[in-house]
Amino acid sequence: MANFIGDNPHIFEDATANRKMFFEKTGLDINKTVCMWVTHGDQIVELPDGSMGSSMFDFRKTVKVDGLITNKKGINLFLLIADCLPVIIYDPVQSAVGLIHAGWKGVDLEISKKAVDQFKLKFISNTDDLIVGIGPCAYKESFIKENPSQKDDPRWKSFITKVGENRYSIDLISFTKKQLIDAGVKKENIFESGVDTVKDERFFSHVRESGGPINEQGRFACVVGLK
Fold first, then answer.
1. Residue with the larger pLDDT of the pair 140 and 207
2. Assessment of whether the complete model's pTM goes beyond 0.85
3. Domains within the chain, CATH numbers bracketed
């Protein structure tokens, strides 16, 4: 699925056409779908009114957050992503679901833990009931940063490994799992895809495509909702 950024009409048209094709093939209703525009922060909101449908066709109407949660049935949450972690949280007892964008900054801000806190606050969720899935993303062998500021942060000690001169491997998945477990999610209720987006060319990858302009890089979609 092509991404669209800025005012390039051709990129916008390509993205819109791809989205329509995707929803037609899956049988989902694009007009009952809400699109996030990530800010690389830690804001998580309950599904806002007036954002269905239109946010899929006009980036100015997207919801500028890094997490959406809802207990409304028949509505899809939509996230474009490439290498960052798409985190899906599901409460089968209270019938609620969330879609979280956990990138380098979001993981540092412990967004996944904050998402669990929102489930407890908004839906009175029992953390024992929560089921979490981590979708395709960049694994530690592929996510290398030069001299990251977090290398001296004690919270990151177990998740950053020096692999060369001023180069460090970042384990976003393990740190995210720790945050979820610290928030009360059972370890056995956390699942990961095992797909490294940098290595698996079925998926778009910001790391792999970083040599080109940002508005020409692709993104794949993560979609979740309650029946």
1. 140
2. yes
3. 9-225 (3.60.140.10)
